[in-house]
Amino acid sequence: MSDNCIFCKIASKRIPVEPLYEDENFIAFHDMNPQAPVHALVIPKTHFETIMELDDEALMVGAFRAVQATAKALNLTEEGFRTVINCRENGGQTVYHLHFHILGGRFMQWPPG
Ligand code: AMP
Ligand code: ZN
After folding, report:
1. What 3-state DSSP class applies to 3?
2. What DSSP character marks residue 37?
3. DSSP H/E element including 27
4. Is the pTM of the predicted complex or chain greater than 0.90?
């Protein structure tokens, strides 16, 4: 756990959120500044700064399962959705605790901005 990491505080329940999905290693909740009609974040409960620090294969598999389960819980699987992981400056990362964005409820343009 990183003491001044906002997502560590959410993962440890020091900041309460309404979980959209939760298991032993991951928790999902609504993004506070939604960029689509549905915008959720899936985070590991363990602190990893970026995707490049994640090297535990069980957690890698678990992350995909958590994204799938969250998309199901949000009823996004039929219409589809976008999953995004921003990494460092050029990726537009602002919170340095690994997280998966799940965006849905509208058509997503490509290429992204
Ligand atoms: P990124 O730019 O990929 O690092 O995304 C960070 C995301 O976290 C942004 O979409 C923020 O709106 C979101 N965010 C930051 N703090 C919170 C919070 N306390 N609760 C929910 N979402 C948050
Ligand atoms: Zn953290």
Report:
1. coil
2. S
3. strand 26-30
4. yes
Residue 1 pLDDT level (bands cut at 50, 70, 90): low
Check pLDDT > 90 for residue 33.
yes
Task: Please identify every residue annotated as catalytic.
Answer: 99
For 6-104, which CATH class? Answer: alpha beta
C-alpha dihedral sign at 63, 104, 13, 54: positive
CA of 94 to the centre of ligand 1 (A): 7
For the chain, first and last CA: distance in Å?
Answer: 32
Determine the atom of ligand 1 nearest the C-alpha atom of 33: 12
Cα angle 69, 59, 29 (rounded to 5 degrees) comes to: 40
Ligand at shortest distance from the CA of 97: 2
> How far, in Å, is the centroid of ligand 1 from the Cα of 41?
8
